[in-house]
């Protein structure tokens, strides 16, 4: 009888819990009960009909193995009066065995308010963390008990701290497996003492069950996921001294005396200073190329393109240069060498040093785009500021050449021109403007250049270049001559003077839609007389005033002349020596012709026939042809 009463109590508990479930569950439970016990179902239906209601009861399978079950009534969450709540079944890990009392487990599943709140950016549904046990049953013969807990999840609640839904972990357990500690529910209050009292017996039974596990149906347990303990891996960290020692063992090092001997040898290495700019400005070894250590990998190929040539690197004390030498070895350089002791040891040894000039903040800003070019840099910009270029003519070709040379920072620009600005010049001569009409071209160009770059010194020569004044004009010394003359007598005069003074000439000429550029460098290629031994008849070579010219064509040819002049001043690249560059504006095509030096040239050959200036106007007029 006691067993029957206990079973009835459990069935009533189950029915009451199911009545609060979803509608589908409420419809499914009566059908299952009717199928399991049709006769008992009819009797109960008849009895309930007498009272005007239907009693729904479900049989709990294996309920005879449960000694006691208690259902906690729903409690209101703290501070949640009048707030809508939604019930949700959540599975928990089994906490007891068949011979234990269910009331002990269920009794400690009291709703508690959590202090944790939802973190910023969380997309998980808020949960007040309140729950209560609703049923307990033995689902299998193993004696394991599944505890179903109903969580009270607040949809929205004012005054409550909302905690994010706990992550769950599903696992399959075998019979007798010991419960993991992270799934245990820590009791509080009076239940804590009861928990510790029975803890020893439970551990003993767990050990006994572990020795003889039994097969049973899968028990699904859901537990609050615990944060895994961090794992630390202790690794050996290489120190700076160890790295430096390893670098020095793998490279070649020389002292200051050995470095001086290497630099004085026939196959001297490339000397590279890997210090920072402020150190470089305080002094350097003569002939060094500045490549800071931070830019070594990206800029070393420009400073030392030949990987088979030795490279001598130095820094302040020899540490950075050791790492730099190892880097060059990794990049494929055959013999990188580090100066042991660096620049300090070089100075202590009494060896010569240079105090480099610097551009200063203002000039560094102005020419910053040049400083970024490895082939130019600060040293190249200083070379441009020290250079002198003479422009023959301030017209169509001289105007763009003068402006670009001034913008590039050429320190001294000479202009030879005897004309004045007229309206016909403004179509192509961009150095002049309407305000300068009637003004000498030298003065107009000077004012325009000085307004563009005050670093440039303009030396005007308001006169026509002749045999009588050319020596005086060339006397100050010029590094390059840009020939923008529009007549043959001046071109032959400039050619002969440049050969005798050993000054390279950047030649340019234009006619209608065509232009040409070349470089006449004495001793390295042909001269103008090698290309044109005799001037053409005047009727075959009309001037721009006679034949016309496309306004933009002088800008193209004059800009190319400026580029060639800068290459000569910097000593970089491959100038158009022995090459004639042809441009056709109508087809938009460039072409190139090879030029050969005339061994019988009357001016540049080994046995010249012309050794002094002649009357070039008479020579070009056709007399003596």
CA(first)-CA(last) distance: 148 Å
The figure for the number of domains is 4
CATH homologous superfamily of the largest domain? NAD(P)-binding Rossmann-like Domain
What spatial order of strands do you see in the largest sheet? Answer: 15-14-13-16-17-18-19-20
Rg from alpha-carbon coordinates: 50 Å
Any guess at the CATH architecture of the largest domain? 3-Layer(aba) Sandwich
**Residue windows where pLDDT falls under 50 for at least 5 positions:** 51-74, 77-92, 94-199, 206-227
Helicity, as a percent range: 25-40%
CATH topology of the largest domain: Rossmann fold
Largest sheet data = 8 strands, mixed
- Residue-averaged pLDDT, rounded? 75
Structure classification: alpha/beta
Number of strands: 20
- The number of helical runs is 22
Strand content: 15-25%
Overall, the morphology is: extended
Top-tier CATH class of the largest domain: Alpha Beta
